[in-house]
Amino acid sequence: MDERAALALLSAELEDAGDDAAVVDDLVITTDMLHERTDFPPGTTRYTAGWRAVGASLSDVAAMGAEATAAVAAYAAPAFDDGELLAFVRGARDVCERVGASYVGGDLDEHQEFTVASTAIGRTDDLVFRSGARPGDAVCVTGTLGRSAAALELFNRAGDGPARDDEDDLERANALFQFEPRVAAGRTLAGYATAMMDSSDGLARSLHQLAEASDCGFTIDADRVPITDALTDVADDDAVLDLATTFGEDFELVVTLSESDLEAARSVTDVRLSRIGSVVTREDGITLDGEPLADRGYTHG
Amino acid sequence: MDERAALALLSAELEDAGDDAAVVDDLVITTDMLHERTDFPPGTTRYTAGWRAVGASLSDVAAMGAEATAAVAAYAAPAFDDGELLAFVRGARDVCERVGASYVGGDLDEHQEFTVASTAIGRTDDLVFRSGARPGDAVCVTGTLGRSAAALELFNRAGDGPARDDEDDLERANALFQFEPRVAAGRTLAGYATAMMDSSDGLARSLHQLAEASDCGFTIDADRVPITDALTDVADDDAVLDLATTFGEDFELVVTLSESDLEAARSVTDVRLSRIGSVVTREDGITLDGEPLADRGYTHG
User: Fold this and answer.
1) Of A213, A232, B152, B179, which sees the most CB atoms within 10 A?
2) What is the ipTM of this complex?
3) Which residue of B has its CA nearest to A92?
């Protein structure tokens, strides 16, 4: 059974699961496990790992339209080096501070592979789910896509050697990996959104998941997909659009809202909000420039 | 740096860390990572693993005197077998139901070693910390100690072979591993406790941690330490007391309270509450039958 089949099995078993975060009373709660082999390429600093692991959970809180309250993380490594551990904690704390949450610690575990499990909680009385998108709605994304794809290219270029001329690439890659969880945007968009989720598995897969939950389709214009310059700088021209739509791990918000609310939503959102297309009926499917957009993306290892 | 040194480093860095759970407004939050090599002996079922991992976090909520609200868990394994995964989820859900909490899902991760990261949240307006014990207070433990030590002995006896006559041992071991988190007891004891924590690292280490946080000492009577029959049944007579006081992983509550409150606290607590000794001054140290009780215990791997 692959991870997606397993998730479907769990959704059926647990009625509270299946959105970006679970809801309990006025709280949302979400947890993520990341590990070195699949999530932290050689060259990723522990500061970046702390930022990114906790940021991934904060992004799920954002996707529910909630305020981020607090986060914890379990840090597992073969050995505890004080410099690495403090760097991790500072990364985790800084990403929490960025979104107004408290980083309140966690657990340590001796473990063969560097592994992080982070959990974030948030609060809201105005939840936004993946369901709720209606044909005719506009579909938008925050920020730009492709940061993580660009970062991975830079990490790969630098390899894991300490060569002097790789340092620039590693520094840029780490900076790209330190994304800003869209908590503030999620809060303001919650007032307008009919459906919302984060793009952690890539835009294509997010659209398929929104379509599944909302029983709708999407028509997307490729030239409206906002792509970071960092990706166009490092990737082959003919790979850019594919990477931006399927690589994922960008942790932007994908949101649907009434066309008539679009300008009002833009005016209160603290980041760029790009309209990339429209919600259509389920029968019309999910298309990019008129061609079917496959449910392809990064399945988190 | 070993795990304890690393934890001390983090306590200094994070002012909200250092008790059984972190506190954010009226919420408590705690996270634990467990993995196969050190926490789930061969023969541990996935149902037991789900129960135990989530139970460990619920025990930390109990130790703060809080109501248990919800829990999530990240499940990591080399492959996702649907029977194993459902068994895990049912164990996690059952332990939550036992204490009135909701199990609301989590995350999946492909990982070489079976690993679980669980997080629980709770609520209270009447927190109990590790600090607050005063010389003259009685010190008590809930339930009995030695369940996990007994279970490990039974797991070891059975080995990892599927021999027919090992099944009884494995069944008993799994049952012992499914402890009841002391959430209800923690809630009622919160009305009386001057200090409280759980015994996950063993009674001896818990007393040292309480002494450190409360700036006190303890005098403990060995013959008042409540030991489960399961341990006396399987362990050598001369090892029983040492296992009961240092093995840990029993997830009972260690609580200090005014002597004059002892009977009232007993009358409202839903489990046996054994007075094992008294709080003394820091100068008097931590003693078991008059002999220094070493800060020895199980450091979670």
Assistant:
1) B179
2) 0.88
3) B14
**Helix, strand, coil share of chain B (percent; to 5):** 40, 25, 35
Alpha helices in A167-295 (DSSP H): 167-177, 183-189, 203-214, 229-234, 237-246, 262-268
Cα(A181)–Cα(A59) distance, integer angstroms: 5
Strands of the sheet containing A291-292, edge to edge, are: A193-198, A253-257, A138-142, A273-280, A217-220, A286-288, A291-292
A8 touches B: beta carbon within 8 Å? no
Cα→Cα distances B209→A288, B145, B286, Å: 60, 18, 11
- SS3 label, residue B245: helix
Residue pair B183/B70 in contact (Cβ under 8 Å)? The answer is no
Name the segment(s) of chain A with CATH classification 3.90.650.10: 138-292
Residue A144's nearest CA partner among A225, A65, A263, A79 is A225
Q: What is the dihedral of CA A136, A248, A27, B189, to 10 degrees?
A: 160
Contact A222, A290 (CB under 8 A): no
- A80 in contact with chain B, both atoms CB, cutoff 8 A: yes
**What CATH code is assigned to B138-292?**
3.90.650.10
Fold of A3-123: 60s Ribosomal Protein L30; Chain: A; (3.30.1330)
Residues contacting A97, CB < 8 A, separation 6+: A103
Show the 3-state SS of B30-94: EEEEEEHHHHCCCCCCHHHHHHHHHHHHHHHHHHCCCEEEEEEEEEEECCCCHHHHHHHHHHHHH
Q: CB distance from B120 to chain A under 8 Å?
A: no
Digit-by-digit pLDDT tens for chain B (301 residues) are: 787 788 777 777 776 666 889 999 899 999 999 999 989 999 999 999 999 999 999 999 999 999 999 999 999 999 999 999 999 999 999 999 999 999 998 889 888 899 999 999 999 988 999 999 999 999 999 999 999 999 999 999 887 555 656 788 999 999 999 999 999 999 999 999 999 999 999 999 999 999 999 999 999 999 999 999 999 999 999 999 999 999 999 999 999 999 999 999 999 999 999 999 999 999 999 999 999 999 988 654 3
CB contact under 8 A, B104 and A14: yes
| A74/B32 Cβ within 8 A | yes
> Across the interface, do B16 and A117 touch by the CB < 8 Å criterion?
no
B15 inside 8 A of chain A by CB: no
CB spacing of B121 vs A76 below 8 angstroms? no
